[in-house]
Write a structure and sequence with these properties.
The structure holds two protein chains of two kinds. Chain A is mainly alpha-helical. Chain A has helices at 29-43, 50-76, 98-121, 124-128, 131-147, 151-169, 175-206, 211-221, 227-242, 250-254, 260-285, 287-313, 318-339, 342-373, 384-387, 389-403, 411-423, 427-453, 471-489, 492-506, 509-515, 517-521; strands at residues 79-82, 93-96. Chain B contains six helices and four strands, in the order αααααββββα. The chains are: A mainly alpha, B mainly alpha.
């Protein structure tokens, strides 16, 4: 830096001189908005009544912003904003392509649902412990991860979401919650450390952290630098974050302990950030190394999905069972990553978006069901259909959707993935996806029969009278169910979006061009 | 720790440290220092005062809850970046004005606003932890 008052001789050497168009602000706006509202809510921590009144409209605005960003990216292609006017790769870029915008919009919708559901699920104590501030700050972390174009910055957003998730996990500080939180925190910190080690190594090799810059330089360094080691480290770190098979044990240990809305949010969003990072770094930056590792990833994927669903089948607690279904879904997404073809990646992207919506909604449904039937335990739950047929219908839709049965959103990505695996002759991968679907049907069918269909165990007539649903929670649930129905009966736009996003991963030239407009055109 | 010597010197020490933390904060733009290290010094000032005179007087003295202070700092830092909207430059760009106050040119910038925000975040967060630990100690 020069002295305080003397201007630099030629600012254009260090600064971008272009004016920022108003629409391009959408790239940074969602994250800034989350931080601003989150800190405002933290200041109003004691005013538990006002908090949801600010947070829910703010989440609505956030959803509109991310949808606007998605529209902007669909129309104008990848958008970049480099912070502080510094030229990339020295400034930190936020680069939003279709993949990032699509995931951001989906997760903002899920967060809006969680905000609305949380109004009835989180009591005054939970609000005083900071449910809404943490919700906004975890969204800042998640959206930042989806939008950043800088690997170290990605690490920072992981930290932001991790710290907020600790806060959400221990909301209320019960003994069981602390037990779950310790396991979650410890194992996630190991994964984050691995991520940091890998990033330090990458910086040593490349001398840059900007993803577009890495994508360009990877092909030059491929012959000389030990990129396989690097990519394997990243694979391990993110697979841990995503809860893939050998390193998934933190998820069932912790996801059933916090408030239900927190479990729902985590199940919907957190593991998908790991999947996003895998897609971005293995899929886009290091496609050759991913190809080398594809067999390993495919085996991991098959084991994750099959063992996940078997775990789900063995559970008595509905929330634990859903936690294992989250893991099983991660396996399906990793199958798409293992395939690496446009069809495979687009299947994984579609499935991730589907899973964000459906897993969150499933937890919501289980929570409402437990409030009506009084239990998460399958042995003691029952009679929910008699109590409220509407809830039972919505849950059935979600069950069919998570099992990948028509006409809901789980069907299409599974078809894409099965077809993509058969295309390259990986029949065993296709078979494991189908077997997983079959076992998932049995799992959810079992929950449906025991908790919904069967009369309440030992109940007299008073226990089976119809009960009306809590309004806010039902709105949140119905909204998410509507999304899965819409994406199921009218999948073409989502499919096209996922395919375009996958194409952007396989050929990152548009991504690079967005960050380095001058150099790439020379 | 509540000896007479410590108790009588703690208020002076604390005010000196807070003053010094502000000095470190302000010189931080071009020289060693800045919001983070300044915030740490201020937080340790609060901790010393808490050890000497008890936590309740500290909480009274800072008036706001430490978490609220740190939230305000976060808000301020984020807003410092938002100023760039009005200049048509990317988020977090440094913007400078040079007003003449009493015949002296004072360089003010959005970077300074950001740094003060960082200072408050650190004072609030570390102060909150320190006070909570000291309170627990006296139970």
């Amino acid at each position: 830096m020069a002295g305080k008052t003397e201007p630099l001789a030629d600012l254009s050497v260090a600064y971008t001189m272009e004016k920022v168009a108003a629409a391009d602000w959408l790239v940074a706006a969602p994250v800034i908005w989350c931080i601003l509202v989150g800190s405002l809510l933290l200041m109003l921590r004691k005013h538990t009544r006002i908090q949801p009144l600010i947070a829910i409209p703010a989440l609505g605005i956030l959803a509109l912003m991310t949808l606007g960003l998605l529209g902007h990216v669909i129309q104008n292609g990848t958008v970049t904003m480099t912070m502080g006017r510094w030229l990339p790769p020295f400034g930190i870029s936020f680069t939003v392509d279709l993949l990032g915008a699509f995931f951001a919009a989906t997760s903002a919708l899920v967060a809006l649902g969680a905000g609305i559901y949380g109004r009835s699920d989180v009591d005054d104590t939970g609000r005083r412990y900071g449910f809404y501030p943490f919700l906004l700050l975890i969204m800042a972390g998640i959206l930042g991860a989806f939008m950043t174009g800088d690997i170290f910055n990605l690490y920072v957003w992981f930290e932001v979401l991790l710290i907020s998730s600790f806060g959400l996990l221990v909301l209320g500080s019960e003994r069981k919650q602390l037990d779950g939180a310790v396991k979650y925190a410890f194992l996630n910190l190991i994964a984050t450390t691995l991520f940091l080690v890998a990033t330090g190594y990458l910086y040593g090799l490349f001398g840059t952290l900007n993803m577009a810059d890495i994508a360009v330089k990877a092909s030059e360094l491929r012959g000389t630098a030990p990129l396989m080691t690097l990519v394997t480290l990243y694979l391990l770190a993110f697979a841990m974050k995503a809860a893939a098979f050998p390193v998934n044990f933190w998820l069932p240990a912790s996801y059933h302990t916090p408030r239900l809305v927190v479990s729902a949010l985590f199940a919907g969003l957190l593991t998908k950030v790991g999947i996003y990072a895998l897609l971005r770094i293995l899929g886009m930056l290091f496609p050759f190394e991913r190809e080398e590792l594809s067999f390993l990833i495919a085996i991991t994927a098959a084991l994750t999905m099959v063992l996940g669903v078997i775990g789900a089948l063995a559970q008595n607690d509905i929330r634990r069972s859903l936690g294992f279904l989250v893991i099983s879904g991660i396996g399906v997404m990793m199958a798409g990553l293992a395939l690496g073809s446009p069809a495979g990646l687009s299947g994984a992207i579609f499935y991730a978006a589907h899973s964000m919506v459906v897993m969150t909604a499933l937890y919501f449904a289980a929570g409402i069901g437990a409030r009506l039937g009084g239990s998460f335990e399958l042995t003691s739950a029952g009679g929910l259909y008699a109590r409220n047929a509407f809830l039972a219908a919505m849950t059935l839709i979600l069950f069919l959707s998570v099992a990948g049965l028509p006409p809901f959103s789980g069907l299409w990505p599974k078809i894409m993935l099965v077809k993509a695996s058969l295309d390259i002759g990986a029949w065993w991968l296709a078979a494991s996806i189908l077997v997983t679907g079959f076992l998932t049907t049995i799992t959810v069918g079992r929950i449906w029969v025991l908790a919904y269909w069967r009369p309440a165990p030992g109940g007299d007539d008073a226990d089976t009278l119809p009960i009306s649903l809590p309004a806010g929670a039902t709105v949140a649930l119905a909204g998410l169910v509507a999304i899965t129905i819409a994406a199921g009966v009218w999948p073409e736009p989502v499919m096209a979006l996922a395919q375009d996003a996958a194409r952007g991963l396989i050929d990152p030239s548009a991504y690079v061009l967005s960050v380095f407009p001058v150099e790439a055109s020379q | 720790m509540r000896t007479v010597i410590f108790r009588s010197i703690a208020p002076y020490l604390t005010s000196l440290m807070v003053l010094f933390s502000i000095f470190v904060l302000l010189r931080g733009h071009n020289e060693p220092g800045g919001g983070f290290i300044g915030g740490l010094i201020a937080a340790s000032a609060l901790a010393i005062y808490g050890i000497a005179c008890g936590v309740a007087p500290v909480r009274r003295a800072i008036y706001f809850h430490p978490m609220a202070i740190s939230a305000f700092g976060l808000f301020m830092s984020a807003m410092a970046g938002v100023l760039s909207v009005f200049a048509g430059v990317p988020y977090m760009s440094g913007l400078w004005i040079y007003p003449h106050l009493f015949g002296v040119e004072v360089a003010l910038s959005s970077v300074l606003v950001f740094d003060i925000g960082v200072y408050l975040v650190v004072v609030g967060a570390i102060g909150s932890i320190a006070l909570a630990l000291e309170e627990r100690d006296r139970d």
